[in-house]
Amino acid sequence: MTKIFARFMKDESGATAIEYGLIAALISVALIAGATTLGTSLNTQFTNISKKLNCGTGTTAC
Questions:
Q1: Over its length of 62 residues, how does the chain's per-residue pLDDT go in tens digits?
Q2: CB 45 within 8 A of CB 39
Q3: CA-CA to 55 of 20 to 30 Å: which in 7, 14, 40, 61?
């Protein structure tokens, strides 16, 4: 029984898998945050372009 417990204490494969999982989760959170920021910025740019195009056609007051 002591040998099994000692071997279990030396086995670090589970800890490595958890570390890789945490790294993957951190990368995915960073990607989601970046995509959200980029999406908001693009939405603002397209809104401004749309307003300028509409102003040029005379359909809205500038």
A1: 788 767 767 777 777 888 999 999 999 999 999 999 999 999 999 999 998 888 877 666 66
A2: no
A3: 40
Residue 6's Cβ-count burial label (10 Å; 0-12, 13-18, 19+) is exposed
Question: What is the rounded end-to-end Cα distance, in angstroms, of the chain?
Answer: 83
Tell whether pTM > 0.90: no
The C-alpha atoms of residue 47 and residue 20 are separated, in whole angstroms, by 40
Structural contact between residues 45 and 52, judged by C-beta atoms closer than 8 angstroms = no
Q: Domain spans of the chain?
A: 1-57
Dihedral of the alpha carbons of 52, 53, 57, 58, in degrees to the nearest 10: -30
Structure tokens of 61?
């007051």
